[in-house]
Model the fold of this input.
Amino acid sequence: MSSMSRTVPPTADVVILGGGVMGTSIAYHLAEAGVRNIVVVERGELGSGSSGKPIGGVRAQFSDPLNIELGSRSLRAWQEFGQRPGADIRLDSVGYLFALTSDQQAADFETAVRIQNSLGVPSRMIGPREAHQLCPYLSTDGLVAAAYSPTDGHARPGLAVQGYARAAARAGVVFATHTTVTGLDTTGDRVTAVHTDHGRISCSTVICAAGAWSERLGAMAGVHLPVRPVRRQLAFTAPLTPPAPRIPFTIDFASTAYFHNSDDGLLFGLADPDQADGFDTTWTPDWLTLFRAAVQRRAPALADMETTSGWAGLYEVTPDHNALIGRAGAPHNFLYATGFSGHGFLQAPAVGEIMRDIHLERTPFLDVTPFCADRFTTGVQTRPEIHVV
Done:
């Protein structure tokens, strides 16, 4: 699938910056629509950035209607991925379960569930007893309520990247891996070329889907993409005997500690609130101390489980935890889909469709104008997403 030469094609109609799940989804959707001469430039292997996460959650449980619709449409695409584009992503529709420990959390999630239901999402509020039945690890002590949607779940981002990329490559998309963007040429209100360490590509359109690295690439075109990299870590338990029950993707909302099935054990995750910005992806086992302290009350059996390995990757975070999706005012042929703040994998199919339509100047299924990158400088009211992990 990768371009094996040490040079890149000299010309392209579309150059996509970033070969993760977002870049490959966009490439696939463009190629499926008949767009030709597409080059995807990736500094490492495909999916080696934030999409390298071993298991990614997929859900439509959000507080913002735009995120609900992006998640819901993507869920349908993930469910049909075996037929289109044709790959097994090991989707497990176990549901998402948010454990809520305050009346304010419960009230906020009740509001969100009403919005979700109005948009066709089968989420519902449940009591502590039913939450424990769904996830036996949960302690009901101090549990006020929970929010649950049975059609959410998790899948394998790496398999999704490969599935999109194989289908795109069959349609003629060139993947230039181990290729670093070194600069962009602009003339007037257009980007005219992408410079890489393997050569220059003259192009008609550039689409930035570079995740945590997007701010520096946007700057090359004079476009401000306010994305900062934040390390997130997770760990895997040793194989469990007896095997773990099949449980939802379970989140203690107050602490952000989460856990779900992973092969023959469980996967643990937690967002460290004191994590400094940066591109360091070293896994630090002492991070587990934070997780164990967080679950001691909510899921005490997990606090003593042996872990065997871990992973660290980058979230691409924006000020309001919502994505940046759209077309720059100038240069006008610079498009972007980035800053998903941990939700990129789960929204990738829908965003691939939207970027296809923006490029082809069609009307997308969803108006994503509120996600324009200049919303933070134009005085437009932002809409913070509260269902953030």
The two ends are 33 Å apart (CA to CA). Residues 109 and 147 are 7 Å apart (CA to CA). The mean pLDDT is 95.
